[in-house]
Design goal:
three-stranded antiparallel sheet; four-stranded mixed sheet; 5 helices; alpha+beta; Ribosomal Protein L9, domain 1; Ribosomal Protein L9, domain 2; disordered C terminus
């Protein structure tokens, strides 16, 4: 389906863009969350107005949050954790835990939903982006180390793949990563673009 974005959508596009998306993604996420409307002729007449209004609001937010972005960019957070011999954690590091660590370390309160990270389940060095705005995406480093060891041990942590995870989930994970990378690349390529742009619909 074709939709007109009425708000910026991370890794998809900016308000005022027309996108072709998978029907399920449009019906189940974009439309009910008020992020887009169907790209019917009546709605398309409002595209330029939506684009200009959103641009002014985006500029204001970028200015307001630029100092926060500078504080977060390159921030390192340390997470001591219990882990097995393979390096797999007994539990996981969640976005809620990351948000709490950011507030304690940098004094910045971040909504966990703004943190672009899957639950971390292994020792080692991981990264996450904070979605302040479509333009401000500071990247932070997460060092997950074994309890009782120095935080720097995260850099040399050896993690063995769990056999049951490799077969069952590898294909799905690879597909999701490929779709995410494609969406991100297309969104970045269209940062300066205006008017109607289309993306191939995701295969069901």
């Amino acid at each position: 389906m074709k939709v007109l974005l009425i708000k910026d959508v991370y890794k998809l596009g900016r308000a005022g863009d027309v996108k072709k998306v998978a029907d399920g993604f449009g019906r189940n996420y974009l439309l009910p969350h008020g992020l887009a409307v169907l790209a019917v002729p009546g709605a398309l007449k409002q595209a330029e107005y939506i684009r200009k209004t959103a641009s002014a609001q985006r500029d204001r937010l970028n200015q307001e949050l630029s100092e926060v972005a500078r504080q977060l960019e390159g921030l390192k957070l340390f997470f001591p954790a219990k882990a097995g011999e393979t390096g797999k954690l007994y539990g996981s590091i969640t976005t809620a835990m990351i948000a709490e660590a950011i507030e304690k370390t940098a004094g910045v309160k971040v909504d966990r939903r703004e943190i672009d990270s899957q639950p971390i389940k292994t020792l080692g060095v991981h990264t996450a982006r904070i979605r302040l705005t479509v333009d401000l995406l500071p990247e932070i480093t997460l060092l997950v180390h074994r309890e009782g060891e120095a935080p720097e041990s995260a850099y040399t942590a050896e993690v063995a793949a769990e056999p049951e995870e490799v077969g069952e989930f590898a294909e799905l994970e690879a597909e999701l990563q490929a779709e995410e990378a494609e969406a991100e690349a297309e969104a970045e390529a269209e940062v300066e673009g205006e008017g109607e742009t289309e993306e191939p619909a995701a295969e069901a």
